C-alpha cells in the first residue's frame, strides 16, 4: 500500500509540474490572455493559481498552474477571487517561458491579472 501511494504521489507531482518527455518550451511573452479562474492557494511561500481556457493571440487554448508574481500579489489575488465569485473571466499577463504539454502549461509567472468585464 505504501509503494502504491508513493507511486501515485510521484505521478501526480510529475503531472502537475508538466515534466513529460513530450514537453515543449513555450514563450508566454505575447501579452495578455483571457482565462477562466479555477483554483487559488498557497504553495511553499508563493501563491499558485490554476487557470482554464487561456486563449493566446493566435487562438491557441491552454490551461494549467501558474505562480503569481511577488509584486502586486494581493491585488491579483483580489481580482482572481472576485472573478471567480462572479463567474467572470480574467485577463492574465504571463512572463517568461513555460513548460507546455498538449495544451497545458506549468509554473509560468503571472505579472499582471485583471478582471475582465465581458
Summarize the structure in words.
The protein has helices spanning about 1-15, 75-85; strands spanning about 25, 30-45, 45-55, 60-70, 90-95, 95-100, 105-115. It is an alpha+beta fold and about 120 residues long. The chain has a single domain (about 1-115), classed as OB fold (Dihydrolipoamide Acetyltransferase, E2P). It has a five-stranded mixed β-barrel with strand order 2-3-4-7-5. Strand 3 (about 45-55) and strand 4 form a beta hairpin. It is globular. The model is unreliable at about 1-25 (pLDDT under 50).
What attributes characterize this protein structure?
118 residues; alpha+beta; OB fold (Dihydrolipoamide Acetyltransferase, E2P); 5-stranded mixed barrel; 7 strands; 48% strand; globular; disordered N terminus
The CATH architecture designation is Beta Barrel
Radius of gyration: 15 Å
Helix/strand order: HEEEEHEEE
CATH class: Mainly Beta
User: What is the strand arrangement across the widest sheet?
Assistant: 2-3-4-7-5
Instruction: Tell me the strand percentage band.
Output: over 45%
Supply the helix-strand structural class: alpha+beta
Query: Which fold does the CATH topology refer to?
Result: OB fold (Dihydrolipoamide Acetyltransferase, E2P)
Mean pLDDT: 73
Shape: globular
Helix content: 25-40%
Report the total helices.
2
Instruction: Please give the alpha-carbon distance between the first and last residues.
Output: 49 Å
Low-confidence stretches: 1-25
- Give the biggest sheet: 5 strands, mixed, barrel
